[in-house]
What does this fold into?
Amino acid sequence: STETVKSKYQKASCLDVDLTQAQAAIDAGEYDSAIAQLAAIISASPDSAEAYNRLGYVYRRLQNFDEAFAN
It folds into this structure.
């Protein structure tokens, strides 16, 4: 239905905005903020491979390799 398509589009659009904000925190070196934002994205969209990828990147930057490999 069009409602389902519209809902999926809105969810994807919000996800893009959230990922952009998380990436801005990563770029600024604000890793704690990025981790919190990415965790929230993953909680809302557990199938977001990009959020997991970026979270793993942040943990690698922090040299927290156990968490990096977990994500």
About this structure: The chain has a mean pLDDT of 86. The two ends are 34 Å apart (CA to CA). Helices lie at 2-27, 31-44, 49-61, 65-70. The longest helix spans residues 2-27.
